[in-house]
Amino acid sequence: MKDKGSIILLMLTILFCIGCENKTKTPFIQGYANIKTLHTVLSSEFPGISKSEGLENAFDNDKNTKFLVQQPKNSIQLKNKEVSIIKKYAITSANDAPGRDPKNWTLSGSTDGINWEVLDSKTDQEFSKRTVTNSYSLEHNKKAYSHYKFDFEYSKTSIYGDDYLQIAEIELTALTDMPVTKFIADHTKGKIGDTIQFKDQSANAPHTWYWVFENGIPATSNEQNPKVIYNIPGNHNVTLIIDNKFGRDTLLTKRKIKIYDPENPWKGFYYPTISLTPTDTVSDGYKRAISVIPDLKKAINEVTLGVCKQLYRNITEVPDFEKVNFTFNWSDVLAAKGGSSAAMELWFSTKYIQNALKEKPDEAVKYELYGVLWHELTHGYQFNPVTSDDQYKPGYDYFAFLEGEADLVRINAGYHKTRHPDLGFDGHKYLSGYTPSGFFLKWIVDTYDDDFIYKFNASVKTINPWSFKAAFQEILQKDIDVLWNEYTAYVDTYNATKKVVKTKRIDWINAN
């Protein structure tokens, strides 16, 4: 039996430790600060391909934007007034074709912007996926510089056949005593009424915390690791402000938390900001386009929500866009989608409207414009597969998925009356893309699974490498070639019944 003194000591220990669980001292985390400030001067050997893909995108702390140049090599410089000793740096891959990623590079420092000293060189670098960050240590570096320069070289010719170079983010960091804000949440997507646990992971031992939770309960908190409930569907910002004896740091994370209402899964849908920047405002094609759809922003919003309702089940699954920029231009390319996963660029040819649709009634022009919006906006919101070859041309899974699914969504929305099912070309069958792939997928929806669009898009996340054959086997447990034979019989019957006569396509590019 224990003596009386031992028992008292044990009881005091237990009493002292009650509640200690939440008072455990947070381990110290060393802080690193990005040397890029509001006063940093950025420069590039070559300009970005467009305003929406300019140099500033590589330093905006947003991995969903990118800097894209039409060159295989490029130099980027940062110039500060103050010197700093770089201890590590990071490169983030962009959202597009992996061939455009940097593969080889040299990082150099300078005190005058003329004489450079190499700090690090890398060759044969790879990024495991899109928008992933590779970090590199420079702990050996002891010298301070005010100028830094990257000399980049791309990986290889991309799946689109170009020799471009792209980067989502560049970060150069040095040791700091200032607080550096960082936090996580146990989950960032949920339904109304869910409780979300936030955890502070800030560096350099902050001693005060001030949280702001948009539409959260509570709306603010001074706790280090608060719990929050959301009863309003939508995408909600989270802000954390921290202090230590050296200063203050603030981090605002836009749309950090996504909450949906199971009874109304599309309430709170986030519509991107839309800008209209026509380069052609004088042609008859442009004048006709704006006459048949005078409120183009409303039309884009309408189609955007419609696309997402086909590809996803609620607002928490949908990729976000900050903005969509729509441009009417006098071009030999009918329509195209570009930009990044944060800023989408859409182009439509006024030359096509003026020449190809010249004899068509206004309703037909409006119908064609809506059809293009359905197809191109799908490209913005659909998942991108990783295939064994990633070739963007007919006969390959990557191409057929992107263009076939976009036409499937367009067809399913009812904007297909000027087109008919066909069996592809050059033996590519369901890998022909566009209409051949789109109508085949629509036949699958109507014949086998009315939820196929959602499952087909989602299969990109579970199958690697992705292929039509593997996706059909996973979703339908059927061989795609057997289904194609059934579809061939359907198309033969369709053509005979509808008495389809293919019309010769108008040469609108060379029309007067």
**What is the radius of gyration computed over CA atoms, rounded to a whole number of angstroms?**
28 Å
Number of domains: 3
Structural class designation: alpha+beta
Strand content: 25-35%
Kindly state the percentage of residues in helix. 25-40%
Biggest sheet strand line-up: 2-4-9-6-7
Textual characterization of the structure:
The chain is 25% helix and 28% strand. With 512 residues, it is of the alpha+beta class. It folds into three domains: 31-176, Jelly Rolls, CATH 2.60.120.260; 183-260, Immunoglobulins (Immunoglobulin-like, Sandwich); 273-498. Strand 23 and strand 24 (343-349) form a beta hairpin. Helix 3 (296-311) packs across helix 5, helix 5 crosses helix 6 (397-412) and helix 6 crosses helix 7 (434-447).
Compact overview of the structure:
With 512 residues, the protein is of the alpha+beta class. It has ten helices and 24 strands.
Which short descriptors sum up this protein?
single chain, 512 residues, alpha+beta, Jelly Rolls, Immunoglobulin-like, 3 domains, five-stranded antiparallel β-sheet, five-stranded mixed β-sheet, 10 helices, 24 strands, globular
Topology diagram in text:
Blueprint: H1 4-17, E1 31-34, E2 41-44, E3 67-69, E4 73-84, E5 86-92, E6 102-110, E7 117-122, E8 133-137, E9 145-154, E10 165-167, E11 169-176, E12 183-185, E13 189-191, E14 195-200, E15 208-213, E16 216-217, E17 220-221, E18 227-230, E19 234-244, E20 247-260, E21 273-276, H2 284-292, H3 296-311, E22 323-329, E23 335-339, E24 343-349, H4 350-355, H5 362-381, H6 397-412, H7 434-447, H8 452-458, H9 468-476, H10 480-498
Parallel strand pairs: 13-20, 21-22, 22-24
Antiparallel strand pairs: 1-11, 2-4, 3-10, 4-9, 5-8, 5-11, 6-7, 6-9, 12-14, 14-18, 15-17, 15-19, 16-18, 19-20, 23-24
